[in-house]
What we know:
The protein has helices at 41-44, 75-88, 102-113, 135-138, 141-144, 147-151, 155-169, 176-187, 191-197, 228-237, 253-256, 258-278; strands at 2-7, 13-20, 25-30, 52-57, 95-99, 120-124, 215-220, 242-246.
Amino acid sequence: MKAHTIGGGGNVQLHVEEAGREDGRPILFIHGFSHCNLTWRRQMDSDLSRRHRLVAMDLRGHGRSDKPMDAYADGRLWAEDVNAVIQELQLDRPVLVGWSYAGFVIADYLRYYGDNDIGGINFVGAAVNISADTAPDILGGDFLALLPGFFSTDVDESVEALQAFMRICGECQLDDGDGYLTLGVNTVVPPSVRQSLLSRTIDNDDVLPHVSVPVLVTQGERDRIVRPEVAREIAALVAGARISTYPEAGHAVFLDDTERFNRELAEFLEASAQVEHRLPTA
């Protein structure tokens, strides 16, 4: 495992880790709300590493990346973060895999940089649009009920909300080691960052129809954080997008059914590479 520090938008320092083959097809994993790169530990330490270059970043405000007080409202900064990782590590047309909040981040990247430098996108339990008015149509009621605790600076109230958040993230039961690790990952994110993330108004209906790279939309049908119908709306916006549903999985599909998720991701990379090979050269 290699670690990197990369200057993102506004020179925010981003922590990035990578594993696998340096000469393999790159995958850039982007985690969700209040988590970090360790979200993808069952992918980074898997058979995917035998053929692919696996890169996982800590979003600004999360993990070991910088946590500035006020640097989360501007979509261009999020886009610059993703672009900085791609360019600094010289990732050759990576497939972006974005879970949950990372759907917004990937859409930010697409808005400002397009898709010329990437080879595909896997939206995983993701959303791409949100506002105060539309939040109840996009986010599950169990998640919305936790917002006061997410934003609280009272330790007990905050931890209680984060523990409840962990319980609704997936259908599988985490053992004590994974459970405490995940709780610790969440607690290092300042409440002000969580509030800033969920205060954005985002509309990407004008961006998604212009995506020309292969897109896979992965969704757990028991998702209690992002409503499953959101996945179908994303797939409808992107011509040729394929949707893969997991009837028994929740929000964290990659934990609830790791074997299937990793297999389908490998198959998606193979299919997207074949698409690239068929594209006419300039």
